[in-house]
Every structure is written in structure tokens, then in C-alpha cells.
């Protein structure tokens, strides 16, 4: 079996994956989604010997019937279930050691996460200094939005009809 330092590394990996994507997680239980992510990120799930279906079946096998999560002890049992399947040519103990090596120090990756696009076309579209017409009125000189005053025509309560050019000239003599 693995020594204490390796088991600490495995426990650390377990905790990292158990809190991934869940702000309320305590780090003591691993849900099915994060278990599948652990198997994928640590390369336990190789697509040939161990598939996503195998990972889900092992999770269902080791968890309690009414529970949706597994504890650290159940996590170790799940790794013991998957080890001979992942490393077919090795003995059970060697396979377990090999699967522990895969999990050691592994942490959740964020591959494929959407990043901010940087393209010249996007820069042209979002350059407020090049806007014309009514869109130009929505932004100030620095390109910041003006808020409500840029979106709506504010009503003047002067008593004159909107867009009347000679406001205030009624009482003036010619």
C-alpha cells in the first residue's frame, strides 16, 4: 500500500476536487460530477480500458444507496475498483500503486473555459468613437456609457412642443 506522504497527496487531491465548482462544499464528500472530473483530469479515464460509463458505475457501487456523494474511504474503494481495470497487465497491488500515482497532486483543470475574445473586428465594433447617429449620443468622449440620459429623450417641462426652435420668443417684441 502507499506510504503516508502519498496518502496525504491523494487526500489533498480528493479535497481539491470535492470543493471544485461548489462554494458550499466542505471538502469531505465528493459528488458524482466531480468524481467524473477527477477521473478525467487525472487520466484514470483513458477511453479504452476505463470509460466514462465505468467511472459512473464504480461511483454508484461504492456510494450508499440513498446518498449522492462519497466519502474519502469510499473514494479509496472506488480507486481500488478501477485500478485493475485501468492497468490490466499489473498485479492488483501494482495497479493500485499506479492509480495512486495518477491521482497524487492532481488538481481540477479549467481547460475549455471561455476566454475574452481579442479580435480586430471586435475592437472596431466596440469603439464608441466611431459610432454615428443616435448611437453616438449614448456614449461620452471616453467611450463610457451615459446611462439613462444617453438612452432616453428627457422631457423638458417648459410648456413648448418638443423640437420647437423658438422657445421663449412669444413675449418678445419684434
Automatic annotation (TrEMBL):
Gene Ontology biological process terms, A to Z: microtubule bundle formation; microtubule polymerization; positive regulation of protein polymerization
Domain of life: Eukaryota
Disordered, as annotated region: 128-154
Cellular component aspect of the GO annotation: microtubule
Keywords per UniProt: Cytoplasm, Cytoskeleton, Microtubule
Alphabetical list of Pfam families matching this protein: p25-alpha (PF05517)
InterPro entries: EF-hand-dom_pair, TPP/p25
Segments forming a coiled coil: none
GO MF annotations, alphabetized: tubulin binding
Compartments, record wording: Cytoplasm, Cytoskeleton
Residue spans of biased composition, Basic and acidic residues class: 134-154
Family of the protein in this entry: Belongs to the TPPP family.
Name the UniProt record assigns to this protein: Tubulin polymerization-promoting protein family member 3
Organism of derivation: Champsocephalus gunnari (Mackerel icefish)
Amino acid at each position: 500500500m502507499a506510504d503516508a506522504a502519498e496518502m496525504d497527496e491523494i487526500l489533498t487531491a480528493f479535497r481539491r476536487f470535492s470543493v471544485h465548482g461548489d462554494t458550499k462544499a466542505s471538502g469531505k464528500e465528493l459528488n458524482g460530477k466531480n468524481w467524473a472530473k477527477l477521473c478525467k483530469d487525472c487520466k484514470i479515464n483513458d477511453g479504452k480500458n476505463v470509460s466514462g460509463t465505468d467511472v459512473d458505475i464504480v461511483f454508484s457501487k461504492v456510494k450508499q444507496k440513498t446518498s449522492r456523494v462519497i466519502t474519502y474511504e469510499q473514494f479509496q474503494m472506488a480507486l481500488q475498483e478501477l485500478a485493475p481495470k485501468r492497468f490490466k497487465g499489473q498485479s492488483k497491488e501494482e495497479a493500485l500503486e499506479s492509480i495512486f500515482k495518477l491521482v497524487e497532486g492532481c488538481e481540477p483543470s479549467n481547460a475549455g473555459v471561455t476566454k475574452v475574445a481579442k479580435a480586430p473586428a471586435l475592437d472596431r465594433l466596440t469603439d464608441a468613437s466611431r459610432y454615428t447617429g443616435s448611437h453616438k449620443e449614448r456614449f461620452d468622449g471616453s467611450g463610457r456609457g451615459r446611462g439613462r440620459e444617453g438612452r432616453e429623450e428627457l422631457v423638458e417641462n417648459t410648456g413648448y412642443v418638443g423640437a420647437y426652435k423658438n422657445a421663449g420668443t412669444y413675449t418678445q417684441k419684434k
